[in-house]
Write a structure and sequence with these properties.
2 copies of one chain form a homodimer. Chain A is mainly α. Chain A has 2 domains: 408 residues, no CATH class; 143 residues, STAS domain (Transcription Regulator spoIIAA, 2-Layer Sandwich). Helix content of chain A is 64%, strand content 5%. Chain A is built from 26 helices and 8 strands. In chain A, the strands form 2 sheets. A 6-stranded mixed sheet of chain A has the order 4-3-5-6-7-8. A two-stranded antiparallel ribbon of chain A has the order 1-2. The longest helix of chain A has 32 residues. Chain A is elongated. Chains A and B meet through helix 8, helix 13, helix 18, helix 20 and helix 21 of A and helix 8, helix 13, helix 18, helix 20 and helix 21 of B. Chains A, B: Its main location: membrane. Chains A, B: Keywords: Membrane, Transmembrane, Transmembrane helix. Chains A, B: It is a multi-pass membrane protein. Chains A, B: This is Sulfate permease.
Chain lengths: 582, 582
């Protein structure tokens, strides 16, 4: 029981050894992450089409929940860009206009997502996330980054443009371009330029001024806060609100509200698929960050426990006025680099955000939305990596097709179609590949006991026997291909008396393949050809032993291909046909 | 060009060598198949819920089309039981009552199916049929046989019972049981008993009377014709129609009518999925019969040309008042056994059926539907083979699950849900299996150069090195599993300095797996562990050579696992840690 408890509550493991030193490290990391997270939370809520305060709420209780249930020591959870975009798409498709209804849909989405993640965790279904291939994830993240950046341009320009695909967004932006608000463009463009400079030029400048690298890093991370402060002051001082600069406005001050998700079956039905995609994408993103950071300290994370940690975080978001959250890449790296040692750093960050929600919200009144849009654009452009296309192209056509389709469909048809199509396509392409296995005809490398492809190497062959090495497990999708290939090979060559199937790379033979082998045995027998197997693996042999196949097989099973060769060579010399053919 | 012509028109190949002897053999076979096919055609049309003459029409022009385009020498096409059941389900779901509309839907279904098959043939998509695994097909055929038999009981009992699932049929049969018509039951039960006796007892009786086996076979095949003649006479002589025995009634006499499918987009939309399932199931059934028969004469069939042959047959059915057809198992075996040598036998059979349609239809007026139902029941019960469940159970749980689900869902939710769920489930289970590959930790068998699983064999290991053999191609679905497994193994064992991945059974490394290997290399490096590969296959090596992975890898690539072992053993002696650990 204590062991089970420790599995589901990782806090019991690290909490019992918590020391003052660890607390100090965690506190320092928490301060830095808090500074980074305040503008991000507000910005991502804006991206999700939600009021700014929901971003703050999503950064408080979920962090406590993750600190209790999460298995990563340094993962920082909260609202992230891609999940915010997916939230916007999911809620946008409902066609709601009442802000209360939109907020209810957001907490419901977080709740369903939390339930899905908890369910997957308890049922140990974390492996399902593996069906998102790396090319699909990379393509999806890149395309999402482009979509997010495009969607934020309207805030920089101060125009009402909307859309869930690049085409819709582009058309809408062009149509509204003449309405561009100059004051907004100056604020937004200025913030964008400043943030790009902070990202590229500030750290070298600080270092050359003699600052310590650690300090330079912290100041660089505070760039967005500086932009927020400067542009807010500018709007207030120059009365830019009257000139059409959109501002965040009144943000309710105080503790996160208690909220309850809707349990309307119609709403659940509409949101379920979106919540599933958000859960899986969020989990994949989070786990890869967590694994990368854990490996650096020779630690391990438990993927199924991560599902529980993230599920608890999303349920926490749902009951405290938030929206779907997951582990973020940038903030987790910052947390790690700043020295966080336990999930307590996340709890301290939550306290920081809580203080902000209680104390700082009045100061956000004049914060221009253009500044938040600029922080988003700068953050997401680092996600865009079109070099994946070139890399995949060089590596294999199948991987390229998966990346290309995912990027194209995400940009052209939205996030949900894009990622679903990517998953289906990569599974389909994988099945297609394995349905046409590589089959090599082998000969003996002279003077050795090694066998190689007769098309690639100078090898010896026997005139009355053919050896085929099958480079794939045999299952229903390739069983008929194997049969066709073998029959094609032997039908036109009347000298063949023996066929050896070299099974060294056959890791599995399913029932369809077994039946195909049985049929093949009969068909070859009808043609006067004896079928042998060589180098059958233990687990495959165990399974074949449960059937009549081995008893019915016309030929033998050889432990090694060389043994098969020696046996066939002796047979060839004994039988007149073999000698005549030579 | 002539070569291409010959590929798409197999008739040009066998037609040019057609002799009088071949014609004689084909004619004999055609007579026997015609006798068998007349009652079958009528019966299957009844099963499909169509007028009896549509069964005859489906057995004329489609046979000519197959003779021209088909690649099998002995396949006999026409209406078959399972496809007729699927036709009934497809048309039943439209909720039509007007007979003209039902007939139009049937020819449209044949046309769409023909177009799908032709399209798959021209695009060489025959391999798609391989995704129907043997357990799914076997389960589907067995469940269909049970459904068909249950659906025909109403004709034997003379009651109006309907339904597309076993539950619906059973409830309906029980509800109507009190209405059983005694005269119908006597005719139907008598025909059933007679046909079972013909199948089981007639041939031995004839043989013991001194008949030659060939003649005994022919007489046995004529059993259904005898049942038709006897029961038709009985109805006519005793006026059983007045006693409530349902009869076929007026069947139009003459050549098949010219018909045109509907091109209504709404109807195509409703029928498309059904047509696709009918095409694929029909193709799979047909190809397996054709392959079995071709192999007996060391002939080959061309699966993609079979698609064209069956597609042309279905289009032919659509323009001549028929409904979906495919190659039938029983009649093809009869055709083969009766000595058919070329597809011309099919054309002669078509002429026989044509004569029947022109001359015999008036004689069918008093044919009782119960007799046709009896011929169907006897025919389909040979399809039912529940031993597949036991066989699959013994072989593997995954195959058992696929059979069980297919049978259960086909019986419980109908043919379309059953077969679709079977396909999806077998793909899902296959992906699940390959997502958790077998990974064996290896050691050296003392005194040899062979390596075996340390859990199964007494082997030598090195204290500072671990060798893991991966028994699966590496792709996105199992990349993370591999990473987890390896990190799990090395994280808790601080003595490990070297990890060798034995790649002999790795037939592919996709881009996701490549990135996982890259990450693994970095993570292991961070832990102070060197990663090596051994026995990497040519095609995998070719692909890895296009990347930076091999250059970045901390360790080496060994041609053989023994070479890796020798190198590691020397290293172990050189480095103090290795010695200390020993």
């Amino acid at each position: 029981m204590p062991k089970t408890l420790a599995r589901y509550f990782p806090i019991l493991t690290w909490g019992s050894a918590y020391s003052r030193d660890t607390a100090a490290s965690d506190l320092v990391a928490a301060v830095i992450v808090t500074i980074m997270l305040i503008p991000q939370s507000l910005a991502y809520a804006l991206l999700a089409g939600l009021p700014a305060e929901m971003g703050l709420y999503a950064s408080i209780l979920p962090l406590f929940a993750y600190a209790i249930f999460g298995s990563s020591r340094t993962l920082a959870v909260g609202p992230v860009a891609v999940v915010s975009l997916m939230t916007a798409a999911a809620i946008g498709s409902l066609g709601l206009t009442d802000p209360a209804q939109i907020a209810l849909a957001a907490v419901t989405l977080a709740f369903i997502s939390g339930v899905i993640l908890l369910g997957m965790g308890l049922l140990r279904l974390g492996f399902l996330a593996n069906f998102l291939s790396h090319p699909v994830i990379a393509g999806f993240i890149t395309a999402s980054g482009l979509l997010i950046a495009a969607s934020q341009l309207r805030h920089i320009l101060g125009i009402p443009a909307h859309g869930h695909t690049l085409i819709e967004l582009g058309q809408s932006l062009i149509a509204h371009l003449p309405e561009t608000n100059l004051a907004t463009l100056i604020i937004g463009g200025g913030a964008l330029a400043f943030l790009f400079w902070v990202r590229k030029g500030l750290k070298p400048a600080l270092l050359s001024m003699g600052l310590k690298p650690r300090m330079a890093d912290v100041l660089t991370k505070a760039g967005p806060v500086a932009a927020v402060v400067m542009t807010t002051l500018a709007v207030w001082l120059f009365g830019l609100e009257a000139r059409g600069v959109a501002i965040v406005g009144a943000v309710p001050s105080g503790l996160p509200p208690l909220s309850a998700p809707s349990f309307s079956p119609a709403l659940w039905n509409q949101l379920f698929l979106s919540a599933l995609l958000i859960s899986v994408i969020g989990f994949v993103e989070s786990v890869s960050v967590a694994q990368t950071l854990a490996a650096k300290k020779r630690q391990r994370i438990a993927p199924d426990q991560e599902l529980i940690g993230l599920g608890a975080s999303n349920v926490a978001a749902a009951v405290s006025g938030g929206y779907p959250v997951t582990g973020g890449f940038a903030r987790s790296v910052v947390n790690f680099d700043a020295g966080a040692e336990t999930p307590a750093a996340g709890a301290y960050t939550a306290i920081g955000i809580l203080l902000a929600a209680v104390l700082l919200t009045p100061l956000l009144y004049f914060l221009p939305k253009a500044t938040l849009a600029a922080t988003i654009i700068v953050a997401v452009l680092s996600l865009v990596d079109l070099s994946i296309l070139k890399k995949a192209w060089r590596y294999s056509f199948v991987d390229f097709a998966a990346v290309f389709a995912t990027i194209g469909l995400t940009l052209g048809m939205g996030v949900e179609v894009g990622v679903s199509a990517g998953v289906i396509l990569s599974i389909a392409l994988h099945l297609y590949k394995t349905s046409r296995p590589h089959i090599a005809e082998e000969g003996l490398v002279p003077g050795t006991q090694h066998f190689r492809n007769i098309l690639r190497h100078k090898v010896e062959t026997l005139p009355h026997a053919v050896t085929l090495r099958i480079d794939e497990s045999l299952y229903f999708a390739n069983a008929r291909f194997l049969e066709d290939h073998i029959l094609e090979r032997v039908t036109n060559d009347k000298t063949i008396e023996h066929l050896v199937l070299h099974f060294a790379a056959v890791n599995e033979v399913d029932m369809s393949a077994l039946e195909t082998l049985e049929e093949l045995n009969h068909r070859l027998r009808d043609m006067g050809i004896t079928m042998h197997l060589s180098e059958v693996k233990g687990p495959v042999m165990d399974r074949l032993n449960r059937t009549h196949f081995l008893a019915d097989m016309t030929g033998q099973i050889f432990l090694s291909q060389y043994e098969a060769w020696e046996w066939l060579r002796r047979r060839g010399k004994d039988t007149p046909t073999g000698v005549a053919a030579q």
